[in-house]
């Protein structure tokens, strides 16, 4: 399955933006243009599916902070909106999901002041003859299309900040919703692995089979142990690490209760260095290796500034890993490094996107001309 497009409106600097997405998507731009807001927008769609949307908006400072701070058009409501379109090529289906959230109505309305009120959710399926609404929620009632093609109320009602999509994610009532949710739930977002002395990456972790890396990287040693035990050999990883880490060799002891990793460095062949001793860059590169070359790969991997604390020499090996992962996963990369953006673009045959700011609004340079990205039209603001 593939994420075909994403749109966001009134979320931070995302005034109104819609993007068609490719297999590999590289975003580059100066500080503060809204690259992370785009990345967060996608994470919030995942949060809606997981049932953590309200908690995440509240943790960001609540609706007041999350909402676009600039002027709105006359009649336009104060609403965050996100939507995605997904293609299920294997079954010839297209899914789309939209969520809109606003402020709580004045008391005695239920809910709390800083949380978003979900005003609308809609899930549609396109079997080739145009989109058919399978689920719609406006307020607490959830309408679901049943076997006979009629919309009827779902047995439970949603609370003010609860997402209907998360309530239906594991319901047999709609297999299409379940398929979509399973896809979205598996996306992985990696942003700034911790490398301080207490970082979970520096500690051994429980030896539990780990097909995928956790977003904080805490199961990194288990990810490598899983590859090593199941594949015996991992020549691709060995080569990339040797290239990136000056001939270093990754050491993966067969784990007992806990898994750990070490590095054998060419200058000190007599001993193995433990994760506690790795440099920040070595540790971060290994974490990226775990993210991009794990035993299984998530359907979508998003990396926010993966080049942070890496020497430029590591960027080519990083681009090699991204290109390898791109054969199995959709990729979303936010970077400040032209060199990384170019290296990835060359290997994957895509153009990278320049994110810019126009009157405080996040925009992608040149896209309006090519028609790849369409906004909601010129603002007619107060
Ligand atoms: N509610 C809001 N309304 C409008 N703009 C906002 C709002 N909240 C944040 N912003 C703007 O979003 C910008 C930050 O966006 P973001 O964090 O996505 O930048 P970035 O491109 O990732 O930058 P960096 O490269 O420094 O990480 C800030 O400049 C801020 O002014
Ligand atoms: Mg950022």
**Major sheet, described briefly?**
8 strands, antiparallel
Helix content: 25-40%
- Give the DSSP E fraction (strand runs of 2 or more residues): 25-35%
Instruction: Compute the separation of the termini in Å.
Output: 42 Å
Biggest β-sheet: strands ordered side by side in the sheet: 2-1-4-5-6-7-8-9
How is this structure best described in words?
The chain folds into two domains: 2-21 and 35-187, no CATH class; 189-346, P-loop containing nucleotide triphosphate hydrolases (Rossmann fold), CATH 3.40.50. The longest helix has 16 residues, at 35-50. The chain has helices at 35-50, 53-59, 63-66, 164-168, 175-185, 220-231, 235-244, 280-293, 315-325, 338-348, 367-370, and strands at residues 2-11, 14-20, 24-28, 80-88, 93-102, 117-126, 131-137, 142-145, 151-153, 188-191, 205-206, 249-251, 258-259, 262-264, 273-274, 300-304, 330-335, 353-358, 361-364. The protein has 382 residues and is an alpha+beta fold. It starts with a strand and ends in a 12-residue tail after the last helix. The strands form four sheets. The chain has an eight-stranded antiparallel sheet with strand order 2-1-4-5-6-7-8-9, covered by helices on one side. Strands 10-16-17-3-18-19 form a six-stranded mixed sheet, sandwiched between helices. Helices cover 27% and strands 27% of the residues. Helix 7 runs antiparallel to helix 9, helix 8 (280-293) runs parallel beside helix 9 and helix 9 (315-325) packs parallel to helix 10 (338-348). It is built from eleven helices and 19 strands. Residues 35-36 line the site of magnesium ion.
């Amino acid at each position: 399955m593939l994420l075909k497009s994403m749109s966001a409106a009134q979320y931070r600097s995302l005034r109104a933006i819609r993007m068609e997405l490719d297999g590999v998507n590289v975003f580059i731009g100066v500080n503060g243009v809204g690259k992370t807001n785009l990345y967060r927008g996608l994470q919030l769609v995942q949060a809606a599916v997981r049932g953590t949307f309200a908690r995440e908006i509240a943790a960001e400072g609540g609706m007041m902070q999350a909402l676009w701070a600039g002027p709105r058009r006359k009649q336009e409501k104060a609403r965050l909106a996100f939507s995605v379109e997904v293609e299920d090529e294997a079954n010839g289906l297209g899914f789309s999901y939209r969520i809109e959230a606003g402020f709580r109505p004045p008391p005695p309305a239920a809910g709390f002041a800083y949380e978003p009120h979900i005003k609308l959710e809609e899930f549609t399926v396109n079997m080739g003859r145009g989109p058919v609404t399978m689920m719609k929620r406006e307020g607490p009632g959830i309408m679901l299309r049943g076997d006979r093609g009629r919309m009827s109320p779902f047995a439970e009602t949603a609370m003010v900040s609860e997402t209907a999509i998360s309530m239906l994610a594991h319901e047999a009532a709609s297999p299409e919703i379940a398929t979509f949710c399973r896809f979205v739930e598996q996306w992985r977002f990696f942003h700034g692995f911790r490398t301080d002395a207490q970082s979970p990456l520096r500690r051994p972790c429980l030896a539990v089979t780990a097909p995928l890396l956790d977003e904080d990287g805490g199961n990194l040693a288990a990810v490598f142990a899983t590859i090593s035990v199941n594949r015996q050999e991992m020549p691709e990883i060995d080569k990339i690490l040797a290239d990136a880490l000056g001939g270093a060799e990754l050491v993966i002891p067969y784990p007992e209760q806990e898994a750990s990793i070490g590095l054998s460095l060419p200058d000190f062949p007599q001993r193995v260095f433990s994760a506690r001793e790795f440099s920040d860059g070595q540790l971060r590169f290994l974490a990226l290796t775990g993210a991009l070359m794990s035993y299984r790969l998530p359907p979508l991997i998003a990396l926010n500034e993966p080049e942070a604390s890496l020497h430029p020499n590591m960027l080519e090996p990083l681009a090699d890993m991204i290109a390898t992962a791109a054969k199995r996963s959709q990729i979303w990369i936010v970077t400040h490094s032209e060199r990384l953006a170019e290296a990835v673009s060359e290997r994957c045959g895509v153009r990278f996107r320049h994110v810019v700011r126009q009157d405080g609004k996040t925009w992608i340079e040149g896209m309006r001309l090519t028609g790849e990205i369409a906004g909601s039209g010129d603002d007619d603001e107060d």
